[in-house]
Specification:
elongated, Helicase, Ruva Protein, domain 3, 279 residues, alpha/beta, 2 domains, Rossmann fold, two-stranded antiparallel ribbon
């Protein structure tokens, strides 16, 4: 019998330990172990990999990751109320689960893991985007992790995989797709969670590319994209005029019409513009 079969249902765990979800911590618990197992499988073959999980709560996804064969799971949980429930899981899977009672924004959990590393998490809504951006912008590429399998609000997930010309297309799409293969692998309705959030959710899988799709200096690309989308209704010759006195010539050299708007420009041409500014 596997360790997961010896553990009580999550509703019983929550009742035993008094784990009511706290809005201040962005908590919405996913209690269906079939769904948490499906998310764990969406991360790919976990055998032989260390897995980082942020915000495990009562441990539904944690149980799925361990049952799917993760070599070791590092669970970072800010809410100390959840620690006894997570300790029960650690006892069911001896030596395979480490729990850090910490704020994921304040530590570098990758220091506690050994490659290959996968990150799988039902991220707290209030820190999800910030953590994603940190993972996508390490000092060097390729990163320490091989893949990210993360649950977000549906709106954020749509922004990650958005294509040029869509309303969701912006900085997050470019940041993610420049260095990763990104796709939505699962949708979840509010009713899947306790308490139900006001919005739907989606799981995004991002596989790190060996190198960015197109050459560009990361800092310059970020500056270009930030200025372009901060004034996305403006033509790019106006939105980017502070970057260079001859910005129209540089736009044309990158294959971009000066009258284009940011939402119509694809990743390849943004990278080309970044290279003209670097030169």
């Amino acid at each position: 019998m596997s360790g997961i079969d010896t553990l009580p249902p999550l509703r019983e765990v929550i009742a035993t330990h008094g784990l009511s979800a706290r809005k201040s911590l962005g908590q919405n618990f996913l209690l269906d172990l079939n769904l948490t197992a499906k998310i764990a499988r969406a991360a790919g073959d976990l055998t032989g990999s260390d897995v980082l999980e942020i915000g495990p709560g009562p441990g539904g996804l944690t149980r799925g990751l361990l049952a799917e064969g993760a070599r070791h799971v590092l669970a970072v949980e800010k809410d100390a109320r959840c620690l006894p429930a997570l300790d029960e899981i650690a006892q069911a899977y001896p030596g395979r689960l480490t729990v850090l009672n910490a704020d994921a924004l304040d530590i570098d959990p990758l220091e506690h893991l050994s490659p290959p590393i996968r990150i799988v998490a039902n991220l707290p809504y209030n820190v999800g985007t910030e953590l994603l951006i940190r993972w996508l912008t390490p000092p060097a590429w390729p990163p320490a992790w091989d893949s990210l399998t993360l649950m977000f609000q549906r709106e954020v997930a749509d922004r990650i995989v958005a294509q040029p010309g869509s309303k969701a297309y912006g900085r997050l799409a470019i940041l993610a797709q420049w260095r990763c293969e990104a796709r939505i692998v699962m949708h979840l309705p509010p009713s899947a969670f306790t308490p139900p959030p006001k919005v739907s959710s989606a799981v995004v899988h991002l596989a790190a590319l060996p190198q960015p799709r197109y050459p560009a200096d990361p800092a310059i690309l970020e500056r270009v994209v930030a200025k372009a989308f901060n004034q996305r209704r403006k033509m790019l010759r106006a939105a980017l005029k502070g970057l260079a006195p001859d910005i129209e010539d540089r736009l044309i050299a990158a294959g971009i019409a000066p009258t284009d708007r940011a939402e119509t420009v694809d990743l390849e041409r943004f990278c080309a513009l970044a290279r003209t500014l670097d030169a």
